[in-house]
Design a protein that fits this description.
Elements (H helix, E strand, L loop, with lengths): L1 H23 L3 H25 L4 H7 L3 H9 L2 H4 L2 H14 L7 H19 L5 H10 L4 H21 L18 H10 L1 H17 L5 H11 L1 H4 L3 H17 L4 H21 L7 H4 L5 H7 L11 H17 L8 H11 L2 H12 L5 H12 L5 H22 L6 H9 L9 H17 L1 H12 L13 H17 L10 H21 L4 H18 L15
Helix pairs in contact: 1-2, 1-4, 2-6, 6-7, 10-11, 11-12, 12-15, 18-21, 20-21, 20-24, 21-22, 22-24, 23-26, 24-25, 25-26, 25-28, 26-28, 27-28
Length: 555
Amino acid sequence: MAQDSVDFSSHYQFWMQKLSLWEHASTSETQQDTCLHLPRFQEFLRQMYEVLKELNSSTIIERFPTIGQLLAKTCWNPFILAFDESQKILIWCLCCLINKEPQNSEESKLNSWTRGLLSQILSAFRFDTKEVELFIQSLGYTPEDYCPGLLKNMVLSLASELRENHLNGFNTQRRKKISLPTSAVVCLWLRHLPSLEKATLHLFEKLISSERNFLRRIEYFLKDSLLPEAACHPAIFRIVDEMFRYVLLETDGAPEVLAAIQVFTQCFVEALEKKNKQLKFTLKTYFPYASPSLVMVLLQHPKEIPQELWLQTLKHISEMLREIVEDQTHRSYGGPFECWFLFIHFGVWADIAAEQLVMSETESSEALLWLLAFSYSPRDGSLQRAKIMVELKAALIHLKKLFRSPTLSAKDLQAVAAESPDRDPRPALCQQLSRRLLLNFLLWAPGGHAIAWEVITLEETSGSGGGEISPAQSSCFSLLLLLALFLDHNNSQVAPTDEITHEIIGFLDQTLYRWDHLCEEAPRSRKLARELLAELHASSTSPLNVGRGCRDQDP
């Protein structure tokens, strides 16, 4: 403390002179000098705060009678205020001047003067008046609406923190969240990119650190972050979308990231529709690398289209994507990856495609199979994708044979699988896509319901390892074993894993979430999906899974 006081006193006059020089000159040389000295001046501000926080208001004025001039000159310097760290420390220093119980008119005047400086810092960055008007008007706001609202919210939040004594020594690590209107947050993010990046990274941290994210929880986190609403401005959308792209690439297409992108897009589109009856910006500004006609089709929410036209829309989407991906003349739209990255934003169409493949007797199965294969494996070439489609078509033909059967058992599915002429183990992607078709079969086919209830109530003791097991574990193992046997009948050692368990949990959660948003009437299927989800979720968190083919799960 003593050393800080000595350093502060020795530098005080130097910085007073500097601030006076910077205040009265606006040449490029002066601006360069300001920027050159900013790191040292920030250190001086830190030293000043360390000294001031140990003194009361009266003592500060006695020891440093010109400190008001120094702080005022600092508050009116736009180069200093451009740095968040400078603003923060300056606010701390000004708060030290406020006397909580003024004893005379002089102290009251000091309080009023100090609050005026705080308003200066908090209300708005001091651009030239014309710049302020152009800046705010370009965002669709007026200074009369923006500045007072921002100031009022920040001051009220800060006053609440001070009153509750949560800023012990103004330690920012212990602050509560300051509540700002969305318009103010958008303005902040547009002019200060690091704050937008921090907000997006904070969202990613919440999604990663939370236990297995169901879509409703992801939606809550996204809306609470204000990012979907702020993304109505194309500049913010593009930055957030690029960050999602990098996370997607770094995680090699993790299902959780795909789900987050899909929910983010859904929340963004809802905010866009709520904010603008007519689009303020063209779709090209949001998706610059995509086919505008494809974006228009994907933006149609299934809820807005009669259910009997879903197949027609899916076929149209598939044909447009296939033409861009496999036709060499459409490279201006960025190739397969850009098409896939666009498509996963609207992944609800891929989910509906898998559902329609099982439920509908349609000649559009080829288009839907291509769409499903592409959504899961965009890197494959047309020949590899064709092989996957052949495998899926074979599995689909078997399921179609059983779809209308009123009496069906798990053994029937195993018997159908045994009819397959292909005795080689199926590739992992084929197994995953076939699982998706089979799960839809279990939810929609009358006989599928019977099988699902059969495995829920069945006390299965198959698998390695001993010890007592719960009914939930038993049903989990039964269902997973059923899936595994159907998909890889030639492997007698097949056993369910936690990866498959989580995949099925994700499918059921995503299906229920989609049905809720589409207001889809399917009481029996909905009840069954909820039962299976509860059983599998209970089993996946149980330590008794060890020895039954499933690894320990995260709590």
